[in-house]
Write a structure and sequence with these properties.
174 residues, five-stranded mixed β-sheet, alpha/beta, two-stranded parallel sheet, globular, 4 helices
Length: 174
């Protein structure tokens, strides 16, 4: 928004304030997220998939509490749609930025995801150990670009990381 873009935020239930001037489209499930993103993709120039929905969902749900019994209980999980991959298949796709939360071989895994999803940029983050970025105010990562020019960003605020990512997007759209 600060760079002059019209921004649509598609978000599941969160306890965060909506950024000023951003249009919010609330969703409650991975399936709702998929359909809303694909609808917005028709007119979007850039899509940043900054947080992943769950890879799996329960096959069946219950409106009522499932009562405890003497038997074991098994839950069957089924895959959710891979939103970034589906966006990458579009004939006229927007510029795609995705994220890869990885625990090993960060660059290698990020490059593989970039190619597999047909993204333009993947930001690969380490989620493991003392260098992990989950739940911290600071972050580090590698901005992996389809043109092969990557940028390592070390120990910065998440706002600074977002600026670095958008700088890379702007360079590629000029």
């Amino acid at each position: 928004k600060a760079r002059g873009a019209e921004v649509v935020l598609i978000s599941g239930p969160v306890e965060l304030n909506c950024p000023f001037g951003v249009e919010v489209k609330p969703v409650r499930s991975a399936d709702e997220m998929f359909h809303q993103v694909m609808k917005e993709a028709i007119t979007a120039d850039i899509i940043c998939k900054v947080a992943a929905v769950a890879d799996y969902r329960m096959e069946t749900t219950s409106e009522e509490k499932i009562k405890k019994s003497e038997d074991d209980l098994s839950l069957k999980l089924v895959r959710t749609k891979d939103i970034l991959a589906e966006l990458g298949k579009l004939k006229e796709k927007p510029f795609l930025v995705g994220f890869a939360a990885e625990s090993e071989d960060i660059l290698k895994q990020g490059i593989a995801k970039l190619k597999k999803k047909n993204a333009d940029i993947i930001v690969a983050n380490n989620i493991k150990g003392p260098d992990g970025v989950t739940g911290k105010d600071s972050t580090s990562g590698i901005i992996i670009c389809a043109d092969g020019k990557n940028l390592a960003v070390e120990n910065c605020s998440k706002v600074e990381m977002s600026c670095q990512i958008l700088d890379q997007v702007e360079k590629r759209l000029k």
